[in-house]
Automatic annotation (TrEMBL):
Residues of the signal peptide: 1-19
Record keyword Amino-acid biosynthesis present: no
Protein name: Cytochrome P450
Species in which this protein is naturally found: Catenulispora yoronensis
Gene3D superfamilies in alphabetical order: Cytochrome P450
Entry similarity comment: Belongs to the cytochrome P450 family.
Keyword Metal-binding: yes
Organism superkingdom: Bacteria
Alphabetical UniProt keywords: Heme, Iron, Metal-binding, Monooxygenase, Oxidoreductase, Signal
Length: 430
């Protein structure tokens, strides 16, 4: 990898655009791999500084490597759209690609880790599993679970929202998508939770090598789906995701075992952690802004717009990773081919140039073109499913007639990739 020093950047920028950035460092170093920054909720302040001081930032990592971080809305949108220069072949998470002996076995086999034209083919395979029929099944499944959970909440007087309520969203989705029972779906959510939370002692044993731990968590999910596919055998007649994937073809051939596994893995990892953590950050934002909760209670038709603000506010998928395929210049800063570039949705979503008064939670914010679902060809294919899960959950909570308040300090997930909560105690209040 080519090292680009601040001096080299300064020289290059002399001939670049007038608004060019002349330094890629900041007064006090910020390490975006430091999970404490996110667990302590101090990341917004860090991104505020980066957007102002060094919007194209070279992040030094403890292991001596480094990567680029884009923090401004316009730069991030442009990188999302320029998929020729910013490749997804190495996966969306830093250090998280599926490497075996140096290669990346998921490259151009898993949807999120593919580039066009291959991406177009893989995305077509995924259309039926995310079509309107499946979204409707997810809606019914989640509706049943959350309405029971609200009854329990009423009876118990409170719960740990992060543990007892939020996981029901992906559990309901998995039950509908894979025709599995509630306990099995809970088990799958546990597996993906450990993978995404591989740096959090609340979710996993954090001793030993981090990369091995992540690889082990990934392999557990593969094993689960390998067994499921095996058990279901030739499921081509089934009307769930397994049946849809078994019927799918690539170049006239059925999907290989590896392609089937990658598709299941992408659906489970893409959906499990995102919607459940988004309901946590959204619910907490409403509890902390009671006037917005009251507006929503009074006018439930505001929910659809409120969900956009909840998505923007939580920015659950904090960043995605890309790797440059050629030399590029971003805001006057040259970035060499082969460099890792991270696009920080969480920062773009608080960029004051795009969102006036960005740290105000406003359920009627308009326009609200948040980047929480990404942008460009990889924009979240599960967005309608995620929206319907969140809609059902908020309908149940708002329609309960109950008022809620926090009953202890929320505990944030120790992750810089997925922003969530491992605990969010709530109780019924006046
Ligand atoms: C509700 C919260 C959700 C958030 C914040 C979210 C976020 C994202 C983001 C940012 C991307 C783009 C990744 C990239 O550009 O590299 C993405 C892609 C994807 N998401 Fe979601 N997602 C959500 C819900 C879901 C659900 C419910 C599912 C599945 C049931 C899902 C499955 C996927 C898949 C398969 C992709 C890959 C799409 C592609 O590469 O073409 N997501 N998601």
């Amino acid at each position: 990898m080519t090292a680009i020093t601040a001096t080299a950047v300064a020289t290059a920028t002399a001939t670049a655009a007038a608004a060019a950035v002349t330094d890629t460092s900041v007064s006090t170093p910020i390490d975006l791999t430091d999970v404490e920054l996110f667990a302590s909720n101090n990341h917004h302040a860090a991104f505020r500084r980066l957007r102002a001081e060094s919007p194209v930032y070279r992040n030094p990592s403890a292991d001596g490597t480094s990567f680029w971080a884009l923090t401004r809305y316009d730069d991030i949108t442009a990188a999302y759209i320029d998929h020729d220069a910013f490749s997804s072949l190495h996966g969306a998470i830093l250090g998280g690609s599926f490497r075996t002996g140096g290669g990346d076995t998921a490259s151009n086999e898993m949807l999120v880790a593919s580039d066009p034209p291959r991406h177009r083919i893989l995305r077509r395979v995924m259309h039926p599993p995310f079509g309107p029929g499946m979204v409707e099944r997810i809606q019914h499944s989640v509706r049943t679970l959350v309405s029971r959970a609200v009854d329990d909440l009423r009876a118990d007087g409170g719960c740990d929202f992060a543990l007892d309520f939020a996981p029901l969203l992906p559990i309901g989705a998995l039950m509908a998508m894979f025709s599995i029972g509630v306990e099995e779906a809970r088990h799958v959510v546990g597996l993906t939770r450990r993978m995404v939370g591989y740096r959090d002692a609340a979710l996993t044993d954090v001793s030993g090598d981090e990369r091995l731990r992540l690889a082990h968590a990934q392999s557990e999910i593969f094993e689960y789906f390998a067994d499921l596919l095996d058990e279901r055998g030739d499921a081509t007649g089934d009307d769930d995701v397994v049946g849809m994937l078994r019927r799918a073809e690539i170049n006239g051939e059925p999907l290989t075992d590896a392609q089937l596994l990658y598709a299941c893995m992408n659906i489970a990892v893409g959906g499990n952690e995102t919607s459940s953590y988004t309901i946590c950050s959204g619910f907490l934002a409403l509890l902390e802004n009671p006037q917005e909760w009251a507006r929503l209670r009074a006018e439930p038709t505001l929910l659809s717009g409120a969900l956009d603000e909840i998505m923007r506010w939580g920015s659950t998928n904090a960043y995605v990773q890309r790797v440059t395929t050629r030399d590029v210049v971003v805001r006057g800063v040259p970035i060499a081919a082969g460099e890792i570039v991270t696009l920080w949705n969480v920062s773009a979503n608080r960029d004051p140039d795009q969102f006036p008064d960005p740290d105000r939670f406003d359920i009627t914010r308009s326009p609200n073109r948040h980047l929480s679902f990404g942008a460009g060809v990889h924009r979240c294919i599960g967005a309608p499913a995620g929206n319907v899960e969140l809609t059902e959950a908020f309908h149940a909570l708002l329609g309960s007639g109950l008022e809620f308040r926090t009953a202890g300090d929320p505990v944030r997930l120790r992750s810089n990739f997925i922003l969530g909560f491992t605990s969010l105690p709530i109780e019924i209040g006046a």
